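Example with several molecule types.
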Amino acid sequence: MAIADPMDRSSSNAGQYVELGDEGALRLDSGTELPRFGVAYQTYGTLNADKSNAVLVCHALTGDQHAANTHPITGKLGWWEVMIGPGRPLDTDRYFIISSNVLGGCMGSTGPKEINPETGEPWALSFPVITIGDMVRAQARLLDHLGIDQLFCVIGGSMGGMQALQWASAYPERVFASVPIASAARHSAQNIAFGEVGRQAIMADRNWHGGEYHAHATTPHAGLAVARMAAHITYLSEAALHRKFGRKLQDRDSITFGFDADFQVESYLRHQGSTFVDRFDANSYLFITRAMDYFDMAVEHDGSLPAAFHKTPVRFCVISFTSDWLFPTADSREVVKALNAEAANVSFVEVETDKGHDAFLLDEPEFHKTLVGFLNGAADKRGLKKP
Amino acid sequence: MTSASARARADLRVDLLFIADLIAPGSRVLDIGCADGALLDYLSRERGADGRGIEISQAGVNACVARGLSVIQGNADTDLMDYPDDAFDYVVLSRTLQATRNPRDVLAQLVRIGRRAIVTFPNFGYWRVRWNLVANGQMPTTRLLAEPWYSTENIHLCTIRDFTQLCDDLDLRTERQVILNHTGHSTRFRSTSRFANFFGEQALFMLSRC
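Resulting structure tokens for the full complex:
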């Protein structure tokens, strides 16, 4: 197994990187195979002697492996800095945290932006369409490489929660506890619709060139920015938008009777869009949103969601947020219902907040308190030493 | 008994103590309406139980999960149907039956998903309750029924006699029964006696399918 030098890579932002495939190709749900693939990841904390304290943090659509370190491109703090660290809910004095860039991502793991070894060109749209199950398979191979048989916990919000559920379903013996946050066992029609708006915005950009923008030395910035702007609205709530911006004007005393960003909310969204394109790949956005669309755990089990968790030994903590309209509490309840049908060990909390879907990224005291309680209870059961 | 477990007992509500003593060590237990999880906590610490809870209030669920218990937000009327038959050794419903929308269905669900159901409820036939109504002509408020009529969650109150009738209707076997007086002590009354229905302030039944 070759461990490539991260500094060698075009992205050079991978953190740690491992190339896998020596022990067999990665079989994908689409039926195709990736003979070799790379996984970029970060770790925080220390793996204990019996390798029982590993926590896999799964990122959402536009996240990456930089969960608790300064982001190499944006220079900002990690996306789950509030959650990971000494004395934080994912306590690095107690747990060994692994955060990997998903298959299909664009921060170093194999994805449409990376070079296809067979052609010497970026994969672009020739990259195989991947699923949440494929992402999890790739993560399992990373754990094999790290010599970790069983995760103490797999945790994530949104698409990260889908992975947490998929892990528990596909590898029940390799997961002690699973924490899907603001997530679902299947992508809703509304969410597929939003995904399609984003994809159409990218594909409508003339700089997209059928995905071959690398060859044209361009990038579909405008399309990707619009995709991000539309998606960003779904991560918030009306109450949060109103509290943050209301109808306040941007650096001006009155409306301009034009199409400049008169309102603060417009300026904010434009900023979100324009900074996003610096760190994200448009084709990756297509592939990852598609993976979410295809996610439906029941379908893989003859239409029965409980069957996805048959006699599961995994302890679950399902968490939702009252103002999340992208992955509403009803989605989490579906998961809980299915787990109850298997008499699984499940906790479920709906956290009261007006911060919308993004609440899982924020410092929500009630959310963190619940999570700490669940993790402590599970860690005691697993026999993990207190810090 | 260690001093810690003695303290844990001292913290338990009296009807919960009686329940705890009925539950065999190492059992799978579902506590419906588990509030802050006091019984579940006690059972898992002291009896090695594999406990689960259902609680309607956000604050209650958060308190339970934060102390490491497996509890979901839900309620007896809608969520019991999700569980398979005989999923638990014991299903506990303490002082909650009278607050459900459909107590008959709930009772039937309890003995379906649990091999045994343990139910406690305030007795509306208790003499102080009767006296309240007879002497004052007002909806009774007592120690166990403290909320006034306009804000109480108790919408389906019953007497011990009403309850045993419903158990008969549902063809349930009463394995144990404890009638508690106003001091929280068990009496020797049988649930079918007039005395039980008059002097019992609350009742506990352990039921199973016939």
